């Protein structure tokens, strides 16, 4: 199944027959070969999804009926949780406990949207009050149609769940393309959905390079909606392509999120959250709080503690007991992170710890957790996403100054503030121009709460009831007399 595409309820070889090597980032060994889908395969998958949508075999089921399938998928994921988590580790590199958490969360996401599918039945329509008594009007929700979902490599199964679960709950059919470097667990998801009895064509999973398979999905005229998570550069391309057919688009893109620490914060707690905010998943997190701003009074002491704790992080294979930081996902990502640190040095920033290959590893894409200080405010290091375990730290003096510094970014995905002064923390939280704001913490993510960015970090919101809206149209029905 791993070298096949899942189209119309069947495992098929790609029409043109190509494959892509899957490399374990810890050992650099080829562990599998996945199929490289081409435009012909995408066309077959979209036609299958179109048919499954148009014939009503999925879209016209009640929400309660669809919820049964979603819950069966959640149960199927949980049944194989440890096995899928191990697969995620060898594919992506992340430590097993993180992968295990992701897989459990993906199952939870299917259960959550099963609940929202049932709620659609409970509230099938909304009456609209009109000023003219001769008319009555109501609004009903209907699924958008065929959804094309394109996802990145940092949370392979979880990102699939964030898109597939709400789309299926709404009554849409889906063509999913995982990132070519981490496709294995998306194929497992197809297998689980198949075993759960999901009707043919409702979910199709196509592996292969984005420039071919992804491009064919965004170009396809029969795809009604595109849901994308990835880089701002590809997101921008997707939006431009979608404009031609007025496809619905939701985008979850990059970030360079600030973490503001006021001098009344507990230094130990602040350091723990700063490290969690940047080293979790090797820093390959869109919402990573990678720009840390610390008030002058505690700047030196906090830095000292941060460097000391960062040097203690246990680096290793994701399957080894006690590993806190695994390898980066790919050689390409390793090279990007290394180049970003090199750039920081040429910009005049100081690398206090880390900055290169983790000592003791002659194989694998292991990058040391890195702390950088004094990057110039107008430089790349401070402003561009590094997407690795690299944190940049700067001091600030006043609240007014730090709000300005935090918001001075083309991104606006997340932001965090730490202070014992609740009123100040709330003031700063309100002033952040970002879609996700954390007070006294960084990164906690809940399926129930909206997720998405301001500015160039994206359009639309995933998760919670907002995530379901992405896949629904609103229809007005008005009657005379
Ligand atoms: P991208 O290169 O943008 O890739 C994301 C997905 O798009 C992959 O499946 C990729 O396929 C596909 N793709 C590439 N070119 C395409 C094209 N021309 N048409 C259609 N699809 C195409 O990003 P990445 O390297 O996977 O992830 C890193 C970036 O994603 C970072 O900037 C990060 O911030 C962002 N990200 C954001 C979030 C959220 S929630 N906002 C979450 C994760 C990542 P292939 O990789 O198979 O070529």
UniProtKB/TrEMBL annotation:
Keywords (A to Z) from UniProt: NAD, Oxidation, Oxidoreductase, Potassium
Task: Give a yes or no for keyword Transport in this entry.
Answer: no
Which regions span the lipid bilayer?
A: none
Lineage, top-rank taxon, reads: Bacteria
Q: In which pathway does it act?
A: Amine and polyamine biosynthesis; betaine biosynthesis via choline pathway; betaine from betaine aldehyde: step 1/1
Family (UniProt): Belongs to the aldehyde dehydrogenase family.
Q: Under what name is this protein listed?
A: Betaine aldehyde dehydrogenase, NAD-dependent
Organism lineage reads as: Bacteria, Pseudomonadati, Pseudomonadota, Alphaproteobacteria, Hyphomicrobiales
Q: Which gene encodes it?
A: betB
């Amino acid at each position: 199944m791993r070298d096949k595409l899942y189209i119309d309820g069947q495992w098929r070889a790609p029409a043109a027959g190509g494959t892509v090597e899957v490399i374990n980032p810890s050992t650099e060994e080829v562990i599998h070969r996945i199929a490289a889908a081409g435009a012909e395969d995408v066309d077959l998958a979209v036609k299958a999804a179109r048919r499954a949508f148009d014939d009503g075999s999925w879209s016209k089921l009640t929400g309660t009926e669809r919820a049964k399938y979603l819950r069966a998928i959640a149960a199927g994921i949980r049944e194989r949780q440890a096995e899928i988590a191990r697969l995620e580790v060898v594919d992506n590199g992340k430590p097993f406990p993180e992968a295990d958490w992701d897989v459990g969360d993906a199952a939870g996401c299917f259960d959550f949207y099963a609940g929202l599918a049932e709620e659609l039945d409970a509230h099938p329509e909304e009456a609209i009050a009109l000023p003219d008594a001769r008319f009555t009007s109501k609004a009903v929700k209907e699924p958008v149609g065929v959804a094309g979902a394109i996802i990145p490599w940092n949370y392979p199964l979880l990102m699939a769940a964030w898109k597939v679960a709400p789309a299926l709950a709404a009554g849409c059919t889906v063509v999913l393309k995982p990132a070519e470097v981490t496709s294995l667990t998306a194929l497992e998801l197809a297998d689980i959905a198949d075993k759960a009895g999901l009707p043919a064509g409702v979910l199709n999973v196509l592996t292969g390079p984005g420039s071919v398979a992804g491009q064919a999905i965004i170009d396809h005229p029969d795809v009604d909606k595109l849901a994308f998570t990835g880089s701002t550069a590809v997101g921008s391309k997707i939006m431009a392509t979608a404009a031609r057919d007025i496809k619905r688009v939701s985008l979850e893109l990059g970030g360079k999120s600030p973490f503001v620490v006021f001098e009344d914060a507990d230094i130990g707690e602040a350091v723990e959250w700063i490290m969690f905010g940047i080293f979790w998943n090797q820093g390959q997190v869109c919402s990573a709080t990678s720009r840390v701003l610390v008030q002058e009074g505690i700047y030196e002491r906090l830095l000292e503690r941060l460097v000391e704790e960062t040097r203690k992080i246990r680096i290793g294979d994701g399957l080894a007991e006690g590993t806190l930081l695994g390898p980066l996902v790919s050689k390409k990502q390793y090279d990007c992170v290394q180049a970003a640190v090199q750039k920081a040095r040429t910009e005049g920033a100081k690398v206090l710890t880390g900055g290169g290959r983790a000592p003791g590893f002659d194989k694998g894409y292991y990058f040391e957790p890195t702390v950088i200080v004094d990057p110039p405010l107008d430089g790349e290091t401070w402003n561009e996403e590094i997407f690795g375990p690299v944190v940049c730290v700067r001091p600030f003096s006043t609240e007014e100054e730090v709000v300005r510094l935090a918001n001075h970014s083309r991104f606006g995905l997340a932001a965090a503030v730490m202070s014992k002064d609740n009123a100040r923390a709330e003031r700063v939280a309100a002033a952040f121009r970002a879609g996700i704001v954390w007070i006294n913490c960084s990164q906690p993510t809940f399926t129930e709460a909206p997720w998405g960015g301001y500015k160039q970090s994206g359009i639309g919101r995933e998760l919670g009831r907002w995530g379901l809206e992405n896949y629904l149209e609103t229809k007005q029905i008005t009657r005379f007399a």
